Amino acid sequence: MKLACADITFNRVYPVVLVALTFFLDALIIVFSYVFILRTVMSIASGEERAKALNTCVSHIICVLVFYITVIGLTFIHRFGKHAPHVVHITMSYVYFLFPPFMNPIIYSIKTKQIQRSILRLLSA
Question: Disulfide: which of 32, 43, 74, 80 matches 96 by Cβ 3.0-4.6 Å?
Fold first, then answer.
């Protein structure tokens, strides 16, 4: 009974602060690592090797963004979508679990020259 009448502000604020700190700390570490990676890539003498390394970095950044955007969307729906229909929650959970693994091979394979030419040929026809 004493616990039921207690102040629950901490219980409501703690998860939000924990998610925010985790997200921002993770984003900060990713940004620092990419600063170091870009600094190393820019020191490469050959322009062709530099472009190839940057191409890989861009693909990785896109994959990370796909993951984080779905996580943020699911978090917002779970936290603030209490009055949203149940189908929205189910759809977002499917998007969170299926979309990033589905997009990873597409993002990394789109760099292949043969696939690029086939897509351009398909779109131009």
Answer: 74
d(CA 56, CA 93): 29
Helix H or strand E segment including 114? helix 113-124
Angle value at C-alpha 65, between 63 and 69, nearest 5 degrees: 125
Write down the pTM of the prediction: 0.68
Alpha-helical segments (H) within 7-85: 9-42, 47-80
Quick: pLDDT tens for 45-60: 788 888 888 877 888 8
d(CA 87, CA 75): 15
What are 96's two structure tokens?
Answer: 């969170």
Predicted confidence at residue 4, as pLDDT, reads 62
